[in-house]
Amino acid sequence: MPSRRFVLGTLASLFAGCSASSPTPTDAPTTHTETRTATPTPTPTPNPYESHLASFGRFLESESVALTELTADERASVVSLTYESDARSTDRLSGEIGTVAGGFFREVAAGWAASRLEATIVAADDDADAVVARWRAEATWFEAYDRGDISADELSLRVLRTVERE
Hints:
Blueprint: H1 4-15, H2 48-62, E1 66-73, E2 78-85, H3 90-109, E3 116-123, E4 131-138, H4 139-147, H5 152-161, E5 164-165
Helix pairs in contact: 1-3, 1-5, 2-3, 3-4
């Protein structure tokens, strides 16, 4: 079994970039063209909550997380995620959890009003309906980390303490 320091170190490195500021634009000249029409057509304003959900989904796909379901209850501000994993070792599961939680925390840092991520890991093999583990991440934990009240290790540990293996 891996040492706690190894697992926390792995997750801490995943969370370390959570609050990094976005890169500044280059000083390249920009061109602005304005076109006016006689009858303006209304453009629907995108729902920021849904935009963050879509961004989180794209992040997970870019990290090769096998999404089964990703939904959000905006009123309760809870995001529900189910994904497949073939990982069985604590190291691999912890790494995957760190990646997913880090993506959630990045969206929270970018202004997502979601308060909690509830994740379910299901088996990726023949018994795909078998639940491997459940865990959660709380936005308040990230906010405490972002303020400097807790360390990256403590943030990781808070997430890992919620893991319930089935």
